[in-house]
Amino acid sequence: MKMLKKTAPILGAALLATMIGAGGAKADGEKVAVDLTTLTSPFWTSYNRYIVEEAKKQGVELLEPFNSEFDTAKQITGVQNALSLGAKGIIFSPFESAAAGSVLKAAEKAGAKVVAVDVAPDNGPVAIVVRANNLAYGEKACKFIGDNVKEGPVVQIMGDQASINGRDRGNGFRECITKNYPKLKLLEIPTKAWSGEDAAAGLDALLNAQPDLKAIYMHAGGVFLAPTLQTLKRKNMLKPAGEEGHIVIVSNDGIPQEFDAIRKGEIDATVSQPADLYAKYGIQYLKDAINGKTFAPGPTDHDSNIVEVRPGVLEDQLAAPLVTKENVDDKAFWGNQL
Q1: Which of 67, 92, 121, 260 is the most exposed place for a label (fewest CB within 10 A)?
Q2: What is the dihedral of CA 192, 195, 200, 202, to 10 degrees?
Q3: Which residues contact 325 (CB under 8 A, 6 or more apart)?
Q4: pLDDT tens-digit map of 280-325
């Protein structure tokens, strides 16, 4: 895992640079920059690919993307470098929601517009946030587990609580379990920076103390799926769905690896957060903002709603459906299109 963290971002960035250099957007117009949060998660590598495709499709001149690797200092430096290269628009994902203010202020000072994707900053100025309802992610996972587990311990493997995504998914799951399923005993495994190593170590320790675990909710399959399944396999606790001793598992991302795990019966469901639409509407909103357009709460033309989540922060809440064995082969899901 440590080796992967050191090499994957370099290879991923090189691949994207090659893609852009080979046929990058050369349309007239303002330059834009994109922060690549990480390249060690299949969800984010897919999003990165969609960003490059959408920039070409929508005629945007895309500067070479930069990878922050869950490091706020690197994110700020990457934004400053992009602004010095003349970027008039920034797409970024503030994995530390409170720290996003530094990025937003730097962009505002330079006269650049900002669209936040996947993660909402705690405050503005930001043109709009392109995101799905993360509280609903946790609620969907809770209801699936509650409908399939009568009683016993369940655990959520949590994303970084410095991120509003980690907090929302955790709160949505926790509040739903507490309110609706009193016979379920809620346990939690925290992680720093969405660390797969933290997830594996926490789950290993928990299973030693709680071998009768009934269900797992993973906040992000892109980083937690592999270490979770590996830990269960090592302990001989990965039983297929329908077999005695099966642990009900719900994930969150919608990556092809989760779909394959559902087909194998290793996990039961995942929430498909729309990596393709994050890229499409992230680019579209940024173009509109650069051209002087402003946005307001209300329904959109793509089956979602813009809501004011905090004073001055608007969010286009895209749909994120639950995927189970009943609909896992639906070609409409981006996870089946790669």
Answers
A1: 260
A2: 10
A3: 241, 262, 263, 265, 268
A4: 999 999 999 999 999 999 999 999 999 998 888 999 999 999 999 9
